[in-house]
Amino acid sequence: MSAALLQPVKPKVFPRNGGGMLSSEQFLDWLQPGVFADLIGGQISMHSPVNLRHATLVNFLDHLLRSYLEETDLGGVLHRESVAVRLSARETFMPDLGYFTARQAERLGESHAAFAPMFVAEALSPSTAKNDLGPKFASYELHEVQEYWILDPQKLQHRFFRRAGDMLEEFAASSEKIASTSIQGFWVKRAWLDPDKTPKVSACLKEIMRSVKRQ
């Protein structure tokens, strides 16, 4: 193996302009594989390394939803944090999970998504919680995300929002079963969303599929 291949990739320097705010185009040009950040109001917000509880919860939901989409042939694509979503001139996010319908998937670009996913899930961390519950929530709401799940790996105070006209309204606040309003037939039990007691994905999927077949 050549020495050149062993050289670490040097991160690009932060882009700058006179006004102190970046455009989404500048941010996307700066972004590179292995870098996780959001552009919020023209400012770069870096993602800190996630802890194991955060990773376990996102991995579980990713595996379960991805398996469900494959089992049902529902179509569309589910992307992890590595895909940037450009929502406006100064707002580009990298959601933990974003589901694009089959129609949306046909319009995805090579380097990023130029529109909001149908479904977004974000898992809170100390460095991102304020953004996930504040400016990112407002932007997802404005740009017509149909469903937004905010997962709390630490306190397990998960919150679920669905489209109601121009707003995202909370639902299933005290429900033990959370049925997606944008992904047909998909649901989870609140008890499954505990990173300390994550069940087997195969068992959860079988339970979901039994209910789908009864419909």
Lay out the secondary structure.
Layout: H1 3-6, H2 24-30, E1 37-40, E2 43-46, H3 52-72, E3 77-79, E4 85-88, E5 91-93, E6 97-100, H4 102-105, E7 119-123, H5 129-133, H6 135-142, E8 147-151, E9 159-164, E10 167-171, E11 177-179, E12 187-189, H7 201-214
Parallel strand pairs: 7-8
Antiparallel strand pairs: 1-2, 3-6, 4-5, 6-7, 8-9, 9-10, 11-12
Helix pairs in contact: 3-7
Structural summary, described in words:
- With 215 residues, the protein is of the alpha+beta class.
- The protein has a single domain (50-80, 92-214), classed as tt1808, chain A, CATH 3.90.1570.10.
- The chain is 29% helix and 23% strand.
- The chain contains 7 helices and 12 strands.
- It has helices spanning 3-6, 24-30, 52-72, 102-105, 129-133, 135-142, 201-214, and strands at residues 37-40, 43-46, 77-79, 85-88, 91-93, 97-100, 119-123, 147-151, 159-164, 167-171, 177-179, 187-189.
- The strands form 4 sheets. It has a 6-stranded mixed β-sheet with strand order 3-6-7-8-9-10. Strands 1-2 form a two-stranded antiparallel sheet. A two-stranded antiparallel ribbon has the order 4-5.
- A hairpin with a 2-residue loop joins strand 4 and strand 5 (91-93).
- The longest helix is centred in the first third of the chain and has 21 residues, at 52-72.
- The radius of gyration is 18 Å and the shape is globular.
- The termini are far apart.
